[in-house]
Amino acid sequence: MTKLAISAEWTKFWSVRATWWSLIGGVLLMAFCSVVSGISQHAGSDRAQSAHGIVNGGAIYLVEFCVLAVATLFVTSEYTSGSIRSTLQWVPVRARVTAAKAAVLVPVLFGYGVVVAVLGMAVASVLMRGAGGSTSLSQGAVTALGMGAYFALLGVLCLGISFVLRSAAGTLVVVIVLLLPLPMLMSSYVFPAAMDYFPAFAGMNAMVPPGDVNPLLGSVPPYGPWAGVLVCLAWAAAGIGAGTALLNRRDA
Q1: Which residue in 2, 126, 133, 186 could disulfide with 194, CB within 3.0 to 4.6 Å?
Q2: Inter-residue contact 68 to 175 (CB < 8 Å)
């Protein structure tokens, strides 16, 4: 049953046109960011950046929103069309529904993050022509793997919240607030270090090679890349857990 559920979700995932447009949009946005930043570095920008630093910024400020759209619509499009009824009839164990969707999202978004990161670093490096900071193979690997892990876990978090709210607009608003405005407010008025333990900033730190300065915050992260991944994992587990619990209670 689980294999059949995953196979069905895989088919549904790729049959939605918005999935393709969102993924393509993320690639184009990263390419745009890398082109503009690479040319700026070559022209002598006041703020020197490395190729992996440029990609980090592109992921947080641009591409992650395409990932949000992919993960959110994977659930909410079924509620909009009413096909969720068929899904729940075919897979009576509710936990298997969320698990099957997560099993599709995680490898797709992880691979997507790695590919987008490598593309962005390659484009930026070519256009920088030796200007700015250098990127070693190990630094590039940490950034690419960190981006893949962040996108995969961000997708699972969105998946869970989508099952809770069952609304694309509501899910996007909640997740965007959780990614940027809320951690900034918490950091400013409650606890200065709180920002590093919210999904976006933990994901950003997961892409920063050990010992490097976070290119967006201008400081060395308080923990290493693996710790950033674990923070994102905790948020993803909380999101999918809440979504599964409410799906089981409301649609049992």
Answers
A1: 186
A2: yes
